[in-house]
Amino acid sequence: MSAFLVPLAVFLAVVFGASAIGKLRSADRGRAAFVALRIPVRHPRTAAVSLITIEAAATVGLLVTAGWYFVGFAGAALLLTSGLLIAVVRAHRLGATDDCGCFGDWLPAAIGPRLIVRNAVLTTIAASVLAGAVTAAAVSEAVGIPATLLAGPSAPLVLGAVGSGILIAVAVWSVVRASDDGARAQAPIPRGAGAVLLPATAEIVDVLAPAVRARLLVFVAPGCHACATAMASLKAAEAPLAAVADIYVIQRAVSVAAGTEPPHGLPASTRFALDVGGSVAAALDIGASTPVAALIGTDGTQAGPLAVGSDEVRVLIDSIRAAVEVSPA
Question: Can you give the pTM of this predicted structure?
Answer without folding.
Answer: 0.57
